[in-house]
Every structure is written in structure tokens, then in C-alpha cells.
Amino acid sequence: MYTREQIEQHIWDYIDGLSTAEEKAMVEKLMQTDPIWKAIYDEFYALHTRIQMTDMLEEPSMRFTRNVMEEVSKFNVAPPAQSYINKKIIYGIAAFFVISVVALLGYVFTTFDFSSAPGSASIFDSKSLDVDPAKYLNSTVLNVFVFMDVIIGLLLLDRYLTRKKQQTA
């Protein structure tokens, strides 16, 4: 037996004239004997005739693309991102991170034991900190921290130089 998709494909090929003579004979025979084939054929043939009667398949004029592009060029280009981004929000986010870094440094310096001997193994007082700093402050963490600081510094330098260039222009 045929699936519904196969039946529809055979019927569309029959309606469009794309089927071979053998397939035409098979479809005609099945439409006479099988009511499902006949119902699908009637439905598709009605749709086919409605499509043929409508004028929706008109071709656009030869100058259609040029006309569209001329109309599009009349409109203004979208404003740059700087005009609709609220700078106060950006400054607020930057202030949050600066305050976080200052607070972290303040905490580290307040818990730092300056009275430890220069030759001692640990620079932190184990009584003031409950965590082992050597476990968290390894070379990978410090390298990532320095790398991020360098990136942020370069971004700020780029912003400063761009503003300076725009002011002189």
C-alpha cells in the first residue's frame, strides 16, 4: 500500500503532467477503484484550478530591484550604538567592579600580618585566616588575574586614545 505522502506525490505528478504513461495509467486505475485516491485527486485538482485562475504569479517589472533599493536608500541609517546605550549603566557596572577589587584588596591588607619575620615560610598569619591561601593563590590564578588586568588596561587605553583622536578631528 501507498502512504499518504506517496499518494499525494503521484497525484501531483499526474496533475502537473510529470508522470510517465505507465504511472498515468496506474493513477487513473487507482482513482476509479480507490475512494481515497479519488478524494485526494479531487482536492488537489480543485486547488490546482484555483491557483491557475489567480493572478498571483505575476512577474515583477525589470526595474523592480532598482526601485526597491532607491526607496530603501531614502531612509536614514540606524544611529550608532553610542547614541542609544545609556552610559550611566556602563559606568555603574565599572564602578561595581572597581569597588569589588578595592574591597578585596582592603580585606587582604587588613588580614595581612606585617609582623611576620622576613624568613618565615608563610606571609599570612594562620590564626587570622581559616583558609590555606597557598591552595587558592597559585601561579595559574595569579597569571589569569594579571592577564585580565592587562586586557582591561589595554581596553581603557584604547578608549582614551579613541576619544582623544575624536576630539582633535
Give me a quick take on this structure:
The chain is mostly helical and 169 residues long. 70% of the residues lie in helices and 0% in strands.
Task: Describe what this molecule looks like in 3D.
- The chain has 169 residues and is an all-alpha fold.
- It has three domains: 4-53, no CATH class; 87-131; 138-169.
- Helices cover 70% and strands 0% of the residues.
- It has eight helices and no strands.
- The protein has helices at residues 4-16, 21-33, 35-53, 64-73, 81-84, 87-111, 133-136, 139-168.
- α2 crosses α3.
- The protein is elongated.
- The protein starts with a helix and ends with a helix.
- The model has no long low-confidence stretch (mean pLDDT 82).
Characteristics:
mainly alpha; 169 residues; 3 domains
Distance between the termini: 78 Å
The tally of beta strands, per DSSP, is 0
Principal-axis shape equals: elongated
Low-confidence stretches: none
Helix proportion: 55-70%
Largest sheet features? none
Which helices and strands appear, and what pairs or packs with what?
Layout (H helix, E strand, L loop, with lengths): L3 H13 L4 H13 L1 H19 L10 H10 L7 H4 L2 H25 L21 H4 L2 H30 L1
